[in-house]
Amino acid sequence: MGNKNRGLICLEALLKEGEDICGVVISPFPKIKAGGKKTKPEYEALKQFAIKKKISVFQPLKINAPLLVRKIKKMSPDLIVMAGYNQILKKEIIKIPKKGVINLHGGKLPQYRGSSTLNWMIINGETEGGVAIISIDRGVDTGDIIAEENFEIKPDDTIQDVVDKTDKIFPSLLIKIIREIKNGVVKRKPQSLEEGVYYHTRHPRDGKINWERLSAKEIYNLIRALTHPYPGAFTYFNNKKLFIWKASLLKENIRGIPGRVCLRRPPGVIVISADKGLLITKVQTENKTECDANDFFKRLPVDLI
Are the C-beta atoms of 220 and 122 separated by less than 8 Å? Predict the structure, then answer.
């Protein structure tokens, strides 16, 4: 059960290992607005790869629908692997495979349960990220940890950099666990429910920048956590939504009114946050092309909200 690149690379690893894949379940594709672009390639890739390998593909709107549960029972899988799949399984499916269900979770546990955890780690300014493989129980990311690996999050890493790091870790970690499951030597580490933290799903509207409340570093972290290919951190200029795709922290200390675009510094403009100035370098208004902030702000000073 997979989604996007994580699902694809893990399926490739399983096939390379010689595993017999009896079926692939993929997430529903995002809804496309009238006149919008077709489904992005990252959503299509897993489905097309499975079809090419002549593997049965299922794309249910609801994973726990009785008809799909019956189909999974009929396939009688030994193990279900969840790799980026974004729906929660109920007990009717969890109890089907003889070896259980395992989930490849993109977040350090138990500190980062739930959704959008890679984004949250950057937003929170973490310098060390983590991934884990857990056995699925009836909770959300509360099952025993059976494998985990940490990695460095550098100060200038974007969400794409962090996703790329997890994509390098997951396939080999999955194969290691598959072999341990076959040999009956899996080590389990129960999670502490008291120490755990659950994070909710992020929505595009959550990317709005609050210049009066957030520090320069907090805004910088938000921008790099939500930059391409994610929806982006944004503000408003002349009543139009303005996406900020790239920024840098300043060594000099510039203060003033939060939200004020006040100075130019190569290669961008300085916007005041709750504590000091932040260098903004790449921006974009809706339905326009991304451009340099210096080119966008022809006149200074102006205010963002």
Answer: no
Token reading at 115: 């959704």
Give the tens place of pLDDT for each residue, 183-216: 999 999 999 888 889 999 999 999 999 999 999 9
User: Cβ(148)–Cβ(180) under 8 Å?
Assistant: no
What is the rounded CA–CA span in Å between residue 259 and residue 237?
A: 10
Nearest to 102 by CA among 148, 151, 44: 148
Give SS3 for 68: helix
Tell me the pairing of strands 57-58 and 24-25.
parallel
At the top level of CATH, which class does the domain 4-199 belong to?
alpha beta
Contacts of 299 (CB under 8 A, 6+ apart): none
- DSSP of 210-241, one letter per residue? -TTTS-HHHHHHHHHHH-TTS--EEEEETTEE
Specify the CATH number of the domain 205-303. 3.10.25.10
The residue among 200, 201, 222 whose CA lies nearest residue 210 is 222
Cα angle value 147/152/158 (rounded, 5°): 115
Residue 116 identity: S
For the entire predicted model, the pTM comes to 0.92
Q: Given phi > 0 = left and psi -120 to 50 = alpha, else beta, which region is 44?
A: alpha
The tokens for 17 are 């290992």
Domain coordinates in residue numbering, the chain? 4-199, 205-303
